[in-house]
Structures are given as structure tokens and as C-alpha cells.
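Dear V.,

Thank you for sending over the compound details. I've combined the ligand you provided, flavin-adenine dinucleotide, with the protein sequence from our construct and run the structure prediction for the complex. I'm sharing the raw inputs here so there's no ambiguity about protonation or stereochemistry in the SMILES, which I know was a concern on your side last time.
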Amino acid sequence: MNAPVTRRNAVLGIAVAATSLAAPSILRAQPAGRIVVVGGGFGGAACARALKRADPKLVVTLIEPNETFISCPFSNEVIAGLREIEAQQFGYGRLAAEGIAVVVQAAKMIDPHKRIVTTSDGAALTYDRLILSPGIDFHLDALPGYDDAASKTMPHAWKAGAQTLLLRRQLEAMADGGTVAIAIPANPSRCPPAPYERASLIAHYLKTKKPRSKVLILDAKDSFSQQRLFEKAWKELYGDMIERVALSQGGRVTSVDPATRTIVTEFGNYTPDVANVIPPQRAGRIAGIAGAADATGWCPIDPVTFESKLVPNVHVIGDACLGGGVPKSASAASSQGKACANAIVGLLAGRKPEAPRLTGVCYSTVAPGYGFSLAGNYQPRGDIFAEVEGGATSPVEAPRELRARESAEAERWFQTITAETFG
Ligand SMILES: Cc1cc2nc3c(=O)[nH]c(=O)nc-3n(C[C@H](O)[C@H](O)[C@H](O)COP(=O)(O)OP(=O)(O)OC[C@H]3O[C@@H](n4cnc5c(N)ncnc54)[C@H](O)[C@@H]3O)c2cc1C
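Below is the predicted structure of the protein with flavin-adenine dinucleotide bound, written out as C-alpha cells.
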């Protein structure tokens, strides 16, 4: 049985919320170090697991509001009807079985002076080190007209789950001959190639189900990740079905009107049949509440320890941190989670952490059996991560067998990273 949850014992760090999946013996253990991780996504779950495996005496608590994590990687396939949402869902049972206390609550307040995290149900947890991996939230001030209510008619589908399914239903309901617009923000944003993968897979859906339709990309950038590979594939697979309006052609979206489903750009107004509006982003809200986000909306860190430059004893990993050359990807978040765990174990033991070498690989699928990739290595250089040698990108000219092989590798990558993180 779990220890009863009172404010006092929660503050002492010996109990967590009633919804905790924690092993009771861990809660009674004499703490060697109390580590609280906020956010059970690719960064946070990988970090919690690596900490507990590195030193089983650590008291590791993972705070996450959802009992089931829903993965963004491969969610574009769900939108295009190539995969079901169930294949994207992962629980925290295995992490709990390894002795990580999983608290199914949102972190609401952080007091960095007293080193206390308060959750939505009012419970308070003390920490020696706090790790924030809350992913992204939307920078709504930067997109007039867009808010939670607007996302019900103009879905972003940039956090997987209900939004993913809503966009899929809208595509299914659209008549042949319709236009699907995708509004893409400037960087930094979560997974820079993913909007173009989405455009590709939506085009695949339309080509097979509603061939008179088109995809219109309204882009706040002039150039984008793996552009030559995408554009070559679009021509080869979809002819002129995908049209892109770049930043210099007036493609940046300046506001939206959800009542009329209108997207306003620097060039003109569009009223597509389906409007997938991906707003500008910033670090997950709790990072700002903790005082770890700067004026950019992202969190500056020491790239060796991932410790916040703004708040002591708080480390930030994943999409939320200012990672320099590291793209905001699940692959990088997982790599950061493990490196951060290693640094914290060292710090708690009084050792000087070594500079980490991060790896990241990003696969893009443009049609079933047609994929390409971008792999990179990153090391601290000054205040940020810089890309170092050893990276690779798929060649622009390549036989279809290579595209098919990379598409199969993408699926294997997904199986591996989700098994490593949650399995
Ligand atoms: C369409 C799409 C496709 C993508 N495809 C790929 C891909 O193929 N490969 C790849 O590497 N990356 C891909 N990504 C990017 C990837 O999803 C993110 O980079 C990755 O999830 C970042 O990990 P994270 O831990 O920072 O955040 P997340 O994985 O989003 O996890 C954040 C967690 O924090 C929780 N949280 C937030 N606030 C709080 C709070 N206050 N208290 C407690 N918990 C909180 C959330 O519930 C969430 O579970 C894709 C993204 C999108 C949108």
C-alpha cells in the first residue's frame, strides 16, 4: 500500500499522489538523492529511467498528467489513415515497475528557492535536482485569432491525440476537389521536417482517395530541412498536387479567423476546406513558471549538465531547451535525457561531468515505402550544442530501393525508441 498522501509527507518527499504507480519500498527508502522529472515524454521518461538504472538508490519521481503517452513521431501516418492511434500509445507501467514513482498529475508551481514542485492536486514534492522536459506550448500572442477554441476548427495536431484524430476526420469529411492548407511557423519549432512529411502524407491520402484535391503550404520560412529531398519526392509522387508559398512570397501566416476558417498571410487571405494551423511555439508553460525560460520563450542551459542558466538545480531537456544546433526531435530528447541523467549522477557524487556527445536521427516518410533521413552528432561548444562530424543525410539522387529501405528503418527506429523509453 502507498503511504497516505498528506501535504506534510509529500513535502518530505516520502509520498506522492494517490494516483502514483510507485513501488512502496522505494517510497520508504532513505533517499540518496531526490530527483523529480516533470514530463513523461521522450526526454523525461528516458531521463527518469536512465537515472534509476544508473543508481537504484536515487528516489526518482516522474510527474506527468496523462496515464498514456501519445507519440508525435508517426502521428502523420495516423492523420493520413495509414496507421491507428493505438500504435502511438504507451503507458508508464514498466517505469513504475523499475521503481520510478509515477505521479499522474500536472506540475503546477515550482519554488526553486525551497526546491518544491506542487502538482495540480496540491501535493508538494521536494527535490535535490529537478528536470523539466515539458515539450512545447504554443506562443499564441504571435498568432492573433488562434487559441484553444480555434484549434477545434483549425487543428494544429502538433501534440498527438485528439488533435491528430480531428485533423484525420476533417480530411475524411472533405469533398474531392477541396484544398487542405498547412500553416507552418518559423524555427525554432518542434521537429522541423515534420510539417513537410505531413504535407506529403496528406497528399498521398488525397491522391488515393480524393485525387482532384490539393495541399497548400503557407510557410514562414524560405528554406527548410531536407528541402531538395522533399521537393524531388513531391514532383515524382504527387505532380503539382502540393503548392508551397514561401516566406518571401508572402507565405507567413499573420492571423486567423476560426469563425470563417480564414488564414491571413502577408500576401492575401485563404479559406481552405481543411486548415491545419501549426502556431509558433515556445517551451512548455511550466518552464516559464519555473523561471527557466528567457525572452525567446525557450530555456537556456549549460550544455554539459543541462542545468538551467536561470534557475539553479533545475535542468531542462528536450524540445523546451535552447539546444543550438540540435533539432527538436524525439531522438535528440532521448539522447539529452540519458546525458542529463549521467551528468546528475556525477554531480550528486561530486564528480565533474564530462561533455556529452548527443546523437539524433530524423526519418521522414513521404509515402508508404518511401523515406529518407538526417542523422547528426552534437557536442557542447561554448553555451550551445554544435553539430560535429559523423552526421549524414540521404542522397537526393537514389534508387527507390534505398527509399524503401529507409522507410523500413524508420519503422524500426520507432519500435526501438519507444521500447527503450517506455517498454
Ligand atoms: C507531427 C510530428 C512528427 C514528429 N516526428 C518525429 C520523428 O519522426 N522523429 C523524431 O525524432 N521526432 C519527431 N517529432 C518530434 C518529437 O515529438 C518531439 O521532439 C519530442 O516529443 C520531444 O520530447 P520532449 O520530452 O521534449 O517532449 P514530449 O515528448 O512532448 O513530452 C512532454 C511531456 O511533458 C508533459 N507535460 C507538459 N507540461 C507538464 C506539466 N506542467 N507537468 C507534468 N507534465 C507536463 C506532457 O504531457 C508530455 O507528456 C515529431 C513531432 C511532430 C509534431
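A first observation: The pocket of flavin-adenine dinucleotide is lined by residues 38-44, 63-66, 69, 72-73, 75-76, 106-107, 133-135, 158, 190-191, 194, 284, 286, 318-320, 328-331, 333, 362-363 (CB under 6 Å).

Warm regards,
I. M.
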